[in-house]
Amino acid sequence: RLSCIRNNIWLASCGVLSSGLAVLSSFGLMLFCGVPFVVTVANAPFLILGVGVDDMFIMIASWEQSLRKKEKSNVKSLLAETYAEAALSVTITTLTDVLAFFIGTWTAFPSVRSFCLYTGTAFVFCYVYTMTFFGAVLVLNHKREQGNRHWLTCMRVDVGKDQAESSCLYNACCIGSCSGQASQPESEHPMTRFFREYYGPFVTDKWIKLLMVLLYGAYLGGSVYGCTQIREGIDLRNLANDDSYVIPYYDDDEKYFSTYGPRIMVAVTESVDYWNESVRLGIESCAQNLE
């Protein structure tokens, strides 16, 4: 936002910080409980960040709607209205995510089990921090705006004759507009107006609804057909980069050696005196007999 008072940079940063705290808490708890940390778990913070930022947007949108409806209300009623609007959505999405990942802990693969444990626990912590830490940050940010304080320095921004006669650059940095007037609460967001006035009437038109049904039917049919084409298995060349030496190795191995069947190895479980010539000859004879 172009207002030094209405700017929510720190609010957004605290939303990201909330996700980071969830990752730290979940990783610390899992490591304390002795759950092994595998390399796939390193991808979990990106998932938590996506969900945490989404919850942050829901909370901020509900808070601003509450401000428009109850502009003169106290902070307690505003926060209660925000939780009434946003907490249900956040709770349901968190429950579905946690359930999906905890079901994944039933897999037979230890690495996948660890990944699901770490990520599912992180979702729980993300929900807790969103409902507690980020709600408190919303209130503190609101008090800063009510006090007409700068977003960076938290110093009070006063508009007087001196400021009104100052340069446009000074007013833009210290007041929020070149006019030298105090920053007023912003009107409805343009994207909100677009979805209400244009997109909503567009998708509710009867021909568009018919087109949506047809498109969904085509999508559903394609999905069912795609499920019938699934084949279980893994191609090792898909695990390497396109320019890796592994790709031509597997290609040549399949081209020249696929007819020879699997490789057989023999493991000797006892200590062997390899310096003894008779023992070496015995091992060589054993290998020849196997061949």
TrEMBL record:
A GO-annotated cellular component: membrane
Principal location: membrane
Compartments reported by the entry: Membrane
Topology versus the membrane: Multi-pass membrane protein
Entry superkingdom: Eukaryota
Natural source organism: Cettia cetti
Keyword Membrane: yes
Gene: Ptchd3
Protein name as annotated: PTHD3 protein
